[in-house]
Write a structure and sequence with these properties.
The structure is a single chain. This protein is mostly beta strands. The chain has one domain: Sandwich (Immunoglobulin-like). Helices cover 4% and strands 57% of the residues. It contains one helix and eight strands, in the order ββββαββββ. A hairpin with a 2-residue loop joins strand 3 and strand 4. The radius of gyration is 14 Å and the shape is elongated.
Length: 105
């Protein structure tokens, strides 16, 4: 599943891979070198409850999503650090937020 716009709905028992594209913020030749994925519910970290791993695949971040409670909206924040740097030598960091709405249809 590729996310666009930044909200998707899943059922509580569904488990699958979500693909989040970073093609727009990445400059030509810029490559992601590390990622951090955090899921929150009401500002509480619930990553281990709804995320089952993540990886980089070209210009995309692949995220395993699982579980969740019916009626809840989870904020998934992805931070991607790249091989580009500012003049001061700081690495570029691009961020995307995705909302996962859980609905037992």
């Amino acid at each position: 599943m590729s996310v666009s716009p930044s909200t998707f709905t899943k059922q509580p028992d569904e488990v699958y891979t979500l693909s989040v594209s970073f093609a727009k913020p990445l400059a030509t030749g810029e490559t992601m070198v590390s990622i951090t994925v955090v899921a929150t519910l009401d500002d509480v970290d619930v990553t281990s409850t709804v995320i089952s791993g993540s990886s980089i695949s070209g210009e995309n971040v692949l995220i395993g999503v699982k579980g969740g409670t019916d009626g809840n909206d989870y904020k998934i924040t992805i931070k991607a650090t790249t091989d580009s740097t500012t003049p001061a030598g700081l690495p570029f960091v691009h961020e995307a937020d995705v909302t996962m709405s859980v609905d037992a249809i």
